[in-house]
Amino acid sequence: MSATDQTLDTPRSRPPFGLTRLVLTTLAPIVAALLLSALVLALLSVDPVAYYAYVLRRGLTSWLGLQATLTRMAPLLCLAASLIMAFRAGLWNLGIDGQFLLGAVLVGATAQPLSTVLPQAAMLPLCILVAAAAGALWALVPALLKAYEGVNEIITTLMMTFLGISLANVLVKLLFLDPATTVPQTRTLPVADRLPTLPESTISSGLLIGVVAVLAVHFVMTRTAFGMRLRIVGTNPRAAVHAGLSVPALTIAVFCLSGALAGIAGAVEVLGVQGNVRADWNPAYGLAVIPLVFLARFNGVAAIVFVFAFSILSIGGESAARRLGVPHFFTLVVVSILLIALALAEYVDHRRRQRTT
Amino acid sequence: MTEPILSVRGLTKRYPGVVANDGVDLALMGGEVHVLLGENGAGKSTLIAMLTGLQQPDAGDILVDGTPRVIASPREALRLGIACVYQTIMLSPTLTVAENLALGEPWWSRPDRAKIAAELAAMREDLDIAVDPDALAGDLSLGQQQQVEIARALMRGGRVLILDEATSMLTPAGADELGALIRRLAARGLAIVFISHKLNEALAFGDRVSVLRLGRKVGELTPDHIAAQPKEATMAEIVGLMFGRDRAEAMARTPRPASAEPPILQATGLSLQVPGGVGLKDVSLEVAPGEVLGIAGIDGNGQRELAEVLAGQRVAAGSIRLAGEAIDGLGVGARRRKGLRYLTDDRHHEGTVGPFAVAENFVTKDVGASPFWSAAGLVDKSAIGAHAARMVADFDVRTPSVATPIGRLSGGNMQKVILARELTGEAKVVIYAKPTYGLDVANTEATRARILAAAEAGVATVLISTDLDEILALSDRIAVMSAGRIVGTVPNGPDARAAVADLMVGRVAA
């Protein structure tokens, strides 16, 4: 027996998910990260208390800010759903920004023309389908390479993202250009034809699409036979072959579903918020969502919580950036510090458990 | 009497709910090979972990040269001259042998190749350790990699060398080679601890035998005692100590007469090219219900490929019929539903999904099937849990709970889980690949009993094994594989051993 399974057959003591453990592994690193970020702010001679207060007010406690936060969550949740699907199946689809953008651009190109011929109730689902197809198609190349040639999908999806961003730009500037404007952008979908807002608010109903997407993926992965197959492939591909699963077919299915969800994220953003796609527009939401999904440990419910927290930071941070002169990407600095703090806490917790057993 | 190099007194280690070591005494003498025997979970690994600084004892003393010591870490153990070679190799495959040997040095120092090469050359002289210092560790055979680990232990001044099931992954010839090396090391004055599952090996290489059971040391056989009685008597004594009762005779069995029933599994002309491997060359075989067909041969002569082709994991030329029906076009799942099962020899990496619960591992080959999943594909966790509870009881799987990740179980208990998975339901033909590989005596016996019980119940059995004793103990007919071919098939019986040996070395059976 190797050193790693030395406690064979003994019920390894595992401290229960008690309050102490929750504080140690979750709350403490969050507080530490906020304090460390405060220190950085102080070094930039910005009052950290004022910054955090402003972020909270503009992102959470004011009605206007909360509505913006909830609207921002919509595409992020769709992307989180896309990533959870792929990551749980052991496939590192890092190409969601490209899939997102192509979905967005095709919706930008088709939404306004379709709105002139179709009723809204038909146009919106059709646009979402178009975006899903675009995202799935863009994920198909890495999927085929991975499934049949074993090419590392981390590399291919990243490459396809670069190509996707460029292709999206080319499409906007050359093909889907709105001739009525001087800036290169697609035709703008009239506000009345966009995704309806939730009653009595300006919150885009894309939020519902996002929440449903995350919960649906979570359900599929934990409760269905399809999800179980994907988890076997993701955890031990050899065991999957041994159990008679078709690894190539499942790989392609996961990539297409993941790409489709990323494409839908693009549709939700264009149909709910932007109304069109400008040239060189790339919010790079994917890069922000990847760490959140890791923090949530690929758990859908936890991902919703983290996406909500990030959206507060993001919306509040954008306002604070204008008011207090902090760069708007400071939100990402806070998230990065938080990620490192949580990873450290997990490491410490792991060491502590090893010592006690 | 000379002073032991390392001795332990009253060593005790408790885990929640289990006393892994309970007042263990042990004395390791220089120049002696001390064999440590015990079932899985008897506490061998815990004892070794405490000697090498991976675990701290709850009570008792560890004495090095008569002085009590606290071994706080593996580094400390190495400093005191205690080194361990594990069953899985701990070398960096992408580094050369010399670089691996230099890994313990401070990070800023350059590896002194000349010095390492000189030391290796000296070892070649003294101990017949023959490894090229410039070879990549990953290119070496398992036996050679173990030699590198032993060389590393010696270079760091190791005086106590622990071999933790070091022979379990070696070929018989490799194990003999390692045994000879152990004897040379002992002759140099090292104290050797040799842990093995194989009684034969233990007696061939060891001087003194200690037996652990349920965390206690239940007996020690001194060199004089072992020398004074025949080997069979010693074996019976050890088996008696390990299990608390005499189960030695339960292992023998006589083959049954040839089955009168028509074959249920027929494979004809299976051929397969495998890049870098032997593949399969025109392999044909038949098995009748209730019959055990043993497939003997040295590992790597096409046995794995044959098993995978029969199970549906690989596609080969030729034809396979199950109960008269051609199944060549069917995949693993469809063949399984028709009653064809395959027990893999790699329970850790292929047979189980380590992080998944024990309960889930019982059904990884039935994903989507009733009653565990509904027609709509929704999981029924209570059905899976109930099935797992039943299997755990039926197959005597020792696990804290069915929700425990299976990777935490010992090899023997993992094997019970995958045996249960292959034998439940409508099993008509079962292919076993090295079913008792790496298991201790009790689990080996339990596994063989399961295989025979299934065969008695009418299961057609293909038993692939590199352990000739196992083949002879269980089979009705024995086929011998060599270089991807079946070179001959003989009925089991008194002359079978000689006939199989002849076939294995390429002589035509008389």
Automatic annotation (TrEMBL), chain A:
Q: Which residues cross the membrane?
A: 22-44, 64-84, 91-111, 123-145, 157-176, 203-222, 243-268, 288-313, 325-345
Bilayer topology reads: Multi-pass membrane protein
Entry's CDD domains?
TM_PBP1_transp_TpRbsC_like
Q: What Pfam family does this protein match (any one)?
A: BPD_transp_2
What terms describe the molecular function in GO for this protein?
transmembrane transporter activity
InterPro entries annotated for this entry?
ABC_transp_permease (IPR001851)
Reply yes or no: does the keyword Ribonucleoprotein apply: no
- Which of UniProt's keywords are assigned here? Cell membrane, Membrane, Transmembrane, Transmembrane helix
Q: Where in the cell is it found?
A: Cell membrane
Descriptive protein name: ABC transporter permease
Automatic annotation (TrEMBL), chain B:
Q: Which UniProt keywords apply?
A: ATP-binding, Nucleotide-binding
Boundaries of every ABC transporter domain copy: 6-239, 265-508
Q: SMART domains under this entry? A: AAA
Name the SUPFAM superfamilies on file: P-loop containing nucleoside triphosphate hydrolases
- List, alphabetically, the PROSITE patterns matched: ABC_TRANSPORTER_1 (PS00211), ABC_TRANSPORTER_2 (PS50893)
The molecular function terms of the Gene Ontology recorded here are: ATP binding; ATP hydrolysis activity
Superkingdom assignment: Bacteria
User: Family per UniProt?
Assistant: Belongs to the ABC transporter superfamily.
What is the name of the protein in this document?
ABC transporter ATP-binding protein
Its taxonomic path starts at: Bacteria, Pseudomonadati, Pseudomonadota, Alphaproteobacteria, Hyphomicrobiales
